[in-house]
């Protein structure tokens, strides 16, 4: 079932068409990876879906509701983000995870329960009362993931969350996130330049080229039947052993 849909989207800047997309959807319980070369429009599409950027034309529909100025805040509160840079505030780990819940005015007990749950799920309970400024890159990213998932979002945006982490840290975090997301109802958009990550996390793959979605399917389908040479060139970097 589609949770978030972009329909008839154009995004035009300085007379240049950056996006031209008829239909793009994120489905309940699915991780959709979005790939494309630098400048293909991935960030622009993510920002439009996340209601952080207004398209030139078209609409974003969240669970049947067309996003507009009136419902923007309510709809944004049902989404969460993890960026390449964890963007943590200079407080304790616990306070960072609690921040979004406080903003949403949840009861103190509920906040405490959720924070403890996600500290545990991300394996960072031992860091809870320390300041975030001493964390390693991998630990900081775990805090940012705990902060996002504690919000119990319906839609999650992962914007190159593993970039900059060393290989073993990245691999473990990738497996842990896959374990946390798979089997939930969250619709996830995962933007990455590291195509080796895709088979571990994504159920679906969309390929963006010059602002257009040129192919969508399971990683296996796309790998076996690339729609054109652009897709072939991109996917040659996905290790075949992971696709079966
Ligand atoms: N607000 C804007 N004003 C002008 N041009 C923009 C704006 N936003 C994006 N662009 C241009 O649109 C194109 C697509 O940018 P975007 O950041 O969405 O691509 P991307 O696929 O995320 O690239 P990367 O992989 O490098 O992050 C780029 O050429 C960029 O310069």
From TrEMBL:
Keywords: ATP-binding, Nucleotide-binding, Transport. Gene3D superfamilies: P-loop containing nucleotide triphosphate hydrolases. The keyword Endoplasmic reticulum does not apply. SUPFAM superfamilies: P-loop containing nucleoside triphosphate hydrolases. Coiled coil: none annotated. GO terms for molecular function: ATP binding; ATP hydrolysis activity. InterPro entries: AAA+_ATPase (IPR003593), ABC_SmlMolc_Importer (IPR050093), ABC_transporter-like_ATP-bd (IPR003439), ABC_transporter-like_CS (IPR017871), P-loop_NTPase (IPR027417). The keyword Chloroplast does not apply. Pfam families: ABC_tran. Residues 4-235 form the ABC transporter domain. It comes from the Bacteria. This is Carbohydrate ABC transporter ATP-binding protein, CUT1 family.
